[in-house]
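Is nicotinamide-adenine-dinucleotide placement plausible here? Inputs below.
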Amino acid sequence: MLANRQIIMAEKILVTGALGQIGSELTLALREIYGVENVLSTDIQDQENQSDPYYEKLDVMDAGKIAEIVEQHKITIVYHLAAMLSATAEKYPKKGWDLNMDSLLTFLELAKEKKIKQLYWPSSIAIFGPDTPKNNTEQNALAIPTTVYGISKRAGEFWCNYYYEKFGVDVRSIRYPGLISWKTRPGGGTTDYAVDIYYQALEEGKYECFLSENTALPMMYMDDAIRATIELMQADADKLTVRTSYNLHALSFTPKEIAEDIQKHIPDFEISYKPDFRQEIADSWPGSIDDSVAQKDWNWKPKFDLSAMTEAMLGNLKEKLGK
Ligand code: NAD
Ligand code: SER
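Reply from A.M.:
I modeled the complex. Tokens:
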């Protein structure tokens, strides 16, 4: 036990995009495991009220600064989260591609040169496209993405696999579904409606949804996503059969179904629908995911169903918003 603890405390972690929806929670979870001083949080934004002494401003497009930080802090493991998400990347396609691709290749090169020993990089259900089977989409289902974000994630998956196969780089990845959380607002995705709806239910008692009522998408509560990420990174390397990215499943629901679940707690809550450009993105993605390979390889199992998630979201947001 002590030996394990010493091995864990010897790691120095770098998180990029750490002020974002996932990074803000993953950083806290990693600090619980590895110690606060061993997890360096970085982002392109300024930190609010300068409260974290282990924060550094870092633009992941600056490969020189990344190399400097890795050397200076003797970083061993990187969680590279900084990216442009689906809805924003449709507005700035070239910028989205450059950010999502160049920064991944910088970290893969550092791993190839043995400057870091392990890399985590998230992919997405967005790698699938309109020709992909919609329900229980399998690990190796046809994946011809039609969004810039999806193209960048699919290409990134192939790069990860390439660096693993050619250079033995220990890179691990999950195709996250839409993630739902209350600590940090999401940043420019198509699944953001499933977070906004809880805020609006509490603040306004109504919500105008930018997707149509029967658009089913794969989703997951953040606690499950953080646990999955850490479990995958701590899994024995010889158990892992996927070095592109793992399918992961927890929930699948439509705007109508999440609204009905919220109405169990707030009976007067009203939803209306005004689909915008994000409808086309959502229509190109699967409705539910088959994650049997992740279950088999590293025993993945979600804990939160829709009603447990709604309870957790409303409970935590009530406190946060003083409702
Ligand atoms: P987010 O938009 O909430 O956070 C991204 C963070 O990256 C932001 O804090 C932003 O300031 C930072 N950033 C942007 N450009 C940067 C740059 N040049 N240098 C450094 N930092 C920069 O995103 P998120 O939801 O936390 O997503 C994290 C990762 O997970 C992304 O790779 C995303 O594609 C992936 N992902 C997220 C979801 C989801 O539902 N949240 C689903 C699938 C995959
Ligand atoms: N939640 C993400 C998005 O909507 C999926 O990768 O962009």
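Short version: The first strand starts at residue 13 and ends at 16.
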